[in-house]
Amino acid sequence: MVRRATEGRPGGRTAVRGARRPELRLPALAPFDGGVLEPDGDYDGLKFRDLDLAGQDARGARFMDCALTGCALDETALGRARVLDSVLTGLRGVGTGLAEATFRDVELVDARLGGTQMHGAVLERVVVRGGKIDFLNLREARLKDVVFESCVLVEPDFAGARLERVEFTDCALKGADFGNATLADVDLRGAAPLEIARGLDRLSGAVIGTGQLLDLAPLLAAELGIRVTD
């Protein structure tokens, strides 16, 4: 059952635990020398600016206290990479491979990505702010303390994922798949539009607003097998 925001509690809203945001203070960064990324590479305290990293193989690499700005990641292989205490700004790319990657204490700002593969990934204390991400694959991923803010998500796939303390703030959520997902303290009130293509029955643990409930009513009725007629 979808929980709806209600009055009558302290603060006037249904109790929902908010996401903890990353607190990033990057040190002085050295420029990346422009070489090729390497599998299992170790990148610490570096800035990557306006680089074409398309098609490179950095599976299993670790990025710690890094800033990536304006880089191209088309078909870049980053499976099982670890991105920690880093800021990623203006990234662009199609088919970036981030399966089973770990993002912890990360800000992703103004990204333009399509078909990003993040199935089985782990996201903790992550803010995704601005930009547009199409066909994001987060199947079987684990999201804890994640905020999607002022961004557009087109057909994101959360099937089988676990979402805990996840917020959608001033965010367009179009054609989302929550099939077999597990939700706890997921705040969908800031999603406009809120379009659920699959998994309405998995939204227990989510909070929505009254207007959103009215918008979803026909789908909820169909899910329950209720015929609505005058």
From TrEMBL:
<dbReference type="InterPro" id="IPR051082">
    <property type="entry name" value="Pentapeptide-BTB/POZ_domain"/>
</dbReference>
<protein>
    <recommendedName>
        <fullName>Pentapeptide repeat-containing protein</fullName>
    </recommendedName>
</protein>
<dbReference type="InterPro" id="IPR001646">
    <property type="entry name" value="5peptide_repeat"/>
</dbReference>
<dbReference type="Pfam" id="PF13599">
    <property type="entry name" value="Pentapeptide_4"/>
</dbReference>
<feature type="region of interest" description="Disordered">
    <location>
        <begin position="1"/>
        <end position="20"/>
    </location>
</feature>
